[in-house]
Amino acid sequence: MAAYREASESQAQLLEALVEAGHLIPSGVPGVYGRGSDYEAVRLAFDAYVTRAALAAGETPEVLRFPPVLPRRQIEDLGYLENFPHLAGSVFAFEGSEGQARAMAEVAGQHGDWSEHQHPSDLCLTPAVCYPVYPAVARRGTLPAGGVTIDPGASYAFRHEPSGDPARLQMFHMRELVRIAEPETVQTWRDSWRDRALALLVDLGLDARFDVANDPFFGRAGRMMAASQRDQALKFEILVDITDPEPTAIASFNYHQDHFSGLYGIETADGGTAHTACLGFGHERIVLALLKTHGLDVAAWPGEVRSLLWDSVG
Ligand code: AMP
Ligand code: ZN
Q1: CATH number of the domain located at residue range(s) 9-69+127-311 in this protein
Q2: Contacts of 158 (CB under 8 A, 6+ apart)
Q3: Is the dihedral of CA 71, 51, 161, 28 positive or negative?
Q4: Helix or strand run (H / E) with residue 70
């Protein structure tokens, strides 16, 4: 299997315990799991906790929702295949005759390679939940004064990184918020959400801290991109120790400068190029961190944590 990462001992143990407790339901493919009801209840409660925090901070982001597929054209325009060719997934489908369908089914029935019968569709799988937001906002024309804050919700993202680590999934939920405005406004927003998110996660009992980070750019040129991203502190992550050997990033705060706004031509009210930033909470990783910290029996979690997730309103 391509690029499969073996689990460390503690990762394998945690995965086994999660499956045993009914939190994760294995599909047979690494990094693709069903979710049990307690796990899902925590995930949805965490999402609502973030929504309440945004409101409490005086934000009323505009809710937009997108399916977890992107036009192939958009992946091409974004340069995703230059930066992250190893993570992208594209959708292929059958477009042949009855005879070809029979030939494909026969090979597939024997678990052979039936890819020669598949043709590229117009779609790729969405690798980051904010991607559809930028062209959608660009379509509206010039931004209103003060820019916009968009809530694209907690949708599925796909990344082809098969692994035995229960924290490294191929399909997972990312709760994003996106700010598109003047450069200083966007930077201040990104930093204030980084600090607010850390407090929200620490309040839930997680031993979390933030650090400068980089995206997993591909290849040798990618190493330079990653170094430059770090030098400019364009990306922060919130880290928690879940398993050995490394801490796990449970949330990210990204300042894209004019990367997306330049591509789509998004202008501020006074005619300047807008900048963009986004934040992404990794839902499954946050649930995992909570289960690791407070135990696999959600009903027995500390009262303060349960009440922050379920009781507090407003
Ligand atoms: P990124 O766009 O890479 O910063 O991802 C946003 C957030 O999604 C990260 O902070 C992680 O919490 C989460 N995430 C990224 N990749 C994975 C993965 N393979 N499995 C589970 N969660 C992930
Ligand atoms: Zn994003």
Answers
A1: 3.30.930.10
A2: 68, 89, 125, 126, 127, 170, 171
A3: negative
A4: strand 69-71
Q: pLDDT value at position 311?
A: 80
Residue 2: per-residue pLDDT: 62
Nearest ligand to the CA of 178 is: 2
How far is ligand 1, taken at its centre, from the CA of residue 31, in Å?
Answer: 12
Domain coordinates of the chain in residue numbers? 9-69+127-311
Q: Which amino acid is at 229?
A: Q
Using only C-alpha atoms, what is the Rg of the chain? Answer: 21
What residues does ligand 1 touch, defined as CB less than 6 Å away?
128, 159, 161, 168-169, 172, 174, 237, 249-252, 280, 282, 284-285
Candidate of 174, 206, 253, 278 to mutate for ligand 1, largest count of ligand atoms within 8 Å of Cβ: 174
pTM: 0.97
